[in-house]
Amino acid sequence: MLDSIAVIAEQVAMLYLMMAAGFFCFKKKLIRENGAKQMTDLLLFVVTPCVIVSSFEIEFDAALRDGILIATGVAVGAHALAIGIGMLFFKKEPGSRRRVLRFSVVFSNCGFMSIPLLSALLGSRGVIYGAAYLGVFNIVQWTYGVYLMTGDRKQVSVKKAIVNPGVIGLALALPIFFFSIRLPDVLSQTVGQLANLNTPLAMVVIGCHIAAADLKQAFLDKSIYLALVLRLLAAPLLVTALLLPFHFERDLLLACVIPASAPAAATTALFSDRFGQDTGLASSIVTVTTLVSIVTMPLLILAASL
Question: What are the φ and ψ backbone dihedral angles of 123, each rounded to 5 degrees?
Fold first, then answer.
């Protein structure tokens, strides 16, 4: 067990050191705000689909197929659980703040934060399960998430729920897996090399966002602490407790716990800005939950590994 703890600690430390590099580069103006945005777009529209396709380029495995279905079901349940938790709180907050706070509880950073960690700890198998979780996240985000931010069902875009980088990557990857398709070597290697950018690039971008935030103001807002507890502790602990009686294999269990325990999604700030909500609050929540997750995520991973 001590070996397992050491491996988890080492991998998590590597990720946060990469994040620190992004923080340093932004503070020293080696990376500026526009550069961080361009890297985010590169991650979203190129690297993430490549990660998914590259991970699914393996021989068909019935056990893995069953794991994908389970991970998908867990993702649906985890989002439904978080929606229920969010609705119980923040009732006295003004409309704009209430929407942002609830959004941050429901949606975790299961792309930028979870996929690199899954890759580091579990390899391609973990990324495959994480991709299933990410697919559900994207669909729920562009349906319920839009409704949560706007309060207007007419704003909900089924097209965007389906046509987005995560879902498109999954749509390309699933036939490759189920039919054991082999891409031409030059294409496979190109996709693989682009996929390798995911971990360092994602961590550097997160570090840049932390460096750009007003940390003093973020830690003064008491409502953020409640959102933090719900996002980083209540939701993932409930998911873990509900999964343990099923005795899933370790990799599958961790691949479900890690996305559920991730900090507030970066899209909390993006959606807030897009739909005219409290962007300052959204940015603060993303920053604070990301910083505190440095402690909570490893602890939850260790608890699920025991």
Answer: 75, -160
Helix locations, the chain, DSSP H = 2-27, 33-42, 48-56, 62-88, 95-106, 114-122, 124-140, 146-150, 158-162, 165-178, 185-195, 198-212, 215-218, 222-229, 235-243, 250-261, 267-274, 279-305
Domain extent, residue 7, equals 2-305
Task: In whole angstroms, give the CA distance from residue 106 to residue 188.
Answer: 35
Amino acid at 50: C
Tell me the pLDDT of the chain averaged across its residues: 89
Dihedral sign (CA 298, 257, 78, 259): positive
Domain count, the chain: 1
Residue 247 DSSP SS3: coil
Which residue in this structure is represented by tokens 């990557």? 169
The answer to whether 259 touches 130, Cβ cutoff 8 Å, is yes
User: CATH number, domain at 114?
Assistant: 1.20.1530
The CA distance from 91 to 74, in Å, is 27
- Residue 144 per-residue DSSP state: I
CB contact at 8 A, 115 and 270: no
Q: Note the pLDDT tens digit of each residue in 199-225.
A: 899 889 888 888 888 878 778 888 999
Instruction: Print burial letters for 8-39: b (CB count within 10 Å at least 16), e (below 16).
Output: beebbeebbebbebbbebbeeeebeeeebeeb
By CB atoms closer than 10 A (0-12, 13-18, 19+), residue 306 is: exposed
CA atoms within 13 A on the CB side of 26: 23
Predicted local confidence at residue 121, as pLDDT:
86
